[in-house]
Amino acid sequence: MTNFTFLHEAEVELWAAVTYYEERSPGLGLDFQTEIEQVLATIAAHPERCPLRTDGTRRCLAHRFPYLVVYTCENDHIWLLAVAHAKRRPGFWRMRGG
Question: What is the pTM of this model?
Answer without folding.
Answer: 0.85
